[in-house]
Amino acid sequence: MMNSSCSVPKAQVMLQLHGMDYSLFGYNSLKGCPLTSGRDPGFTLPIFSGGADAVRPDQGVTVTARLGRDKWGPPFSGSQNFNILSNELRQNVLVVSTALCSLYDLTLLLMEPPSFHSSFVDWIIKLNNTDDEDMYIEFLDTYGTHFVSRARFGASITVIHKIEDNVYYLFKKDHLTSAASYSTSAHFGHPQTLTSDQQKAIAEFRNHETTTFAVGVPLPDGGNSAKWFDSSER
């Protein structure tokens, strides 16, 4: 892991902080889905207005593998993509592996928040002068259920292997986790020297349906993840 810090002119910062505007947006947890290529449908309209004066990047890449439905965040019950995944979980086990290229983190200082966006202020004034439930519902649909308090900027690739329940229970948990880790490391451009048993485990694992999501930087043609890492750091 490499750490670095720098201070650069504001115009240059805004050029480097690609996608920073999302940190000022509202987020609708009923419509969002983090496992979506490209823009998360949960982001709505700007709640805050703000700029940037400095960059303190934390550059690094990590590869993780995990089982089950943990760390999925709030119930994205209104998201079509999330509902599809939830239905899949009723009959299958999803093995989720994620590679992250984190360029920098952002934290909202709640004691010193940025100024509210003018359109958001107009909405608050309208709500303050009405008891109309439809108006409140329209507000939630426009700005969402949350604002962003912490965000990690960069890019990610998520690989989901779908395994039927009856097949999953034939695997030992540590065997499955290891196979996912070895398979994903190779997929993300980090091949390892494997034993014959490990190669067999990967071969069995790769026979199952696989879906890949790229956020921040799309996968290049041919799915070369090593090139993706290089593009993510630029």
Regions with pLDDT < 50 over 5+ consecutive residues?
1-17, 52-77
Q: Mean of residue pLDDT?
A: 66
Approximate helicity band: 25-40%
**Beta-strand proportion:** 25-35%
CA(first)-CA(last) distance: 17 Å
Q: Please report the total strand number as a whole number.
A: 8
State the helix count.
8
Could you tell me the radius of gyration in angstroms?
21 Å
Q: What are its keywords?
A:
single chain, 234 residues, alpha+beta, five-stranded antiparallel β-sheet
List the helices and strands and how they pair.
Blueprint: E1 2-3, H1 10-16, E2 25-27, E3 43-46, E4 58-67, H2 80-91, E5 92-107, H3 118-128, H4 133-143, E6 146-147, E7 150-164, H5 165-168, H6 173-187, H7 196-205, E8 209-215, H8 225-232
Helix pairs in contact: 6-7
Domain MACPF: 76-185
Keywords: Disulfide bond, Membrane, Secreted
Subcellular location: Membrane; Secreted
